[in-house]
Amino acid sequence: MEMPAPDKGVIARRAAIAEELRAIVPGEGVIVDEDELRPYESDGLTAYRTLPLIVCLPETVEQVAAVMRYCKAHGIKIVPRGAGTSLSGGSLPLADGIILGLGKFNRILEVDYDNRCARVQPGVTNLAITTAVQADGFYYAPDPSSQIACSIGGNVAENSGGVHCLKYGLTTNNLLGIELVTMDGEILRIGGKHLDSAGYDLLGLLTGSEGLLGVVTEVTVRLLPKPSSARALLVGFPTSEAAGDCVAGIIADGIIPGGMEMMDRPAIKAAEAFVQAGYPLDVEALLIVELDGPEAEVDHLIERVRAIAEEKGAVSVRVSESEEERARFWAGRKAAFPAIGRISPDYYCMDGTIPRGQLPLVLRRMRELSEHHGLGVANVFHAGDGNLHPLIMYDANKPGELERAEEFGGDILKLCVEVGGVLTGEHGVGVEKRDLMGTMFNADDLAQQQRVKCAFDPDGLLNPGKVFPILHRCAELGRMHIHRGQLPFPDLPRF
């Protein structure tokens, strides 16, 4: 994986840069010691590691703006970082770049029940928002599996989802406003407590922009009242294809569950051994279907889902009878990723999205790819919206296995695009999918996307080397001639 060539001049000025940053962020806000830099060398995609030049941990918006202005003036790259749970290498450091950590921005600034929203700093964890308001009967809907650790600023950067995004939407559907610091050090407020803004949808543009356009320093999120009733079904199937057919059948019947997740046999066994959630171990696939709303409606929908499941060949159906049992059903799903870590030395967590009707085909093709590459795969995904999370199991200590895992993952993502899907649902592109962008976008598409990047960051200092497979300078963009889809001198790196 090729990254931008480090600027030796910037690296040579490391001590002076650190001293000048300390004048902006005093105290312990600037880290240069190698051992103290080590925790920042990777994010959740631990296959790739680089020590950053410096880590800077500001505490105020004014400090963030001053750091941005300083880096702009001196041509220093910045990689914004939240909790570092990104699974696509979105916050992978650069040897000649500063990690701008937002971990100290960890306060809930305001809870406004009248307008059903909360203003929070970007370092607040996803789960902390719900914890702060649940006693009053409210919650924040997007719930990634990493919600106990991931920060809301990172959720905005990646447009994170979660098990309940089928009915209640991803981050972009639950976001009302942000405060953004540009590369020039300007502090902008976009959106707010109101439901919609006039003019261009800048909030939609910035959500999911992966730290390439600016640094988020405040977030206004939508709060929802907790449903009056919620129950979950555990439905076991003899094949993954039958479970996929059931997913399509439920949606086709006009039922939108609060959440609908699917796990295959390897994931079921690992999660049950880890959590003891009560999952059946004699099935090839398991659906967790949650229905919420008024109690009478939930009871009615449970019977409709049960009938569809039995029609599609379900061999077991179990309905939660208490809130504790419902939470236990979900505990296994939420712990599926660490559970796989108990049965495999390493795993590669992928993220792609397909049309729901293609689930049976894609699951069958993934089994064939597993045999072809000689690596196991466990499937855990948001079945209701077709967001797949295959976990490719490998051993990094065995020569060539990481490379085979990457090839396997690339084949899965190409398959997603082939059947009408997309490269990512919620993990972002980062470095993991960067070189696959050409399978989904042509050169004109990518150039148009980069023009947006250039409008916000013409010098390419914000999170360079991410998302775009060939990153040329903004000044070159309009002059780059592409003939029949081929770049001139394709052997030359263009970072």
Automatic annotation (TrEMBL):
Co-factor requirement: FAD
InterPro entries registered for this protein in UniProt: FAD-bd_oxidored_4_C, FAD-bd_PCMH, FAD-bd_PCMH-like_sf, FAD-bd_PCMH_sub1, FAD-bd_PCMH_sub2, FAD-linked_Oxase-like_C, FAD-linked_OxidoTrans_Type4, Oxid_FAD_bind_N
Oxidoreductase among keywords: yes
Alphabetically ordered keywords of this record: FAD, Flavoprotein, Oxidoreductase
GO MF annotations, alphabetized: FAD binding; oxidoreductase activity
Keyword Oxidoreductase on entry: yes
One protein family per Pfam: FAD-oxidase_C
Gene3D superfamilies reported in the protein's UniProt record: 3.30.465.10, 3.30.70.2740, Uridine Diphospho-n-acetylenolpyruvylglucosamine Reductase, domain 2 (3.30.43.10), Vanillyl-alcohol Oxidase, Chain A, domain 4 (1.10.45.10)
Chain ranges of the FAD-binding PCMH-type domain: 48-226
Source organism superkingdom: Bacteria
Name of the protein this chain belongs to: FAD-binding protein
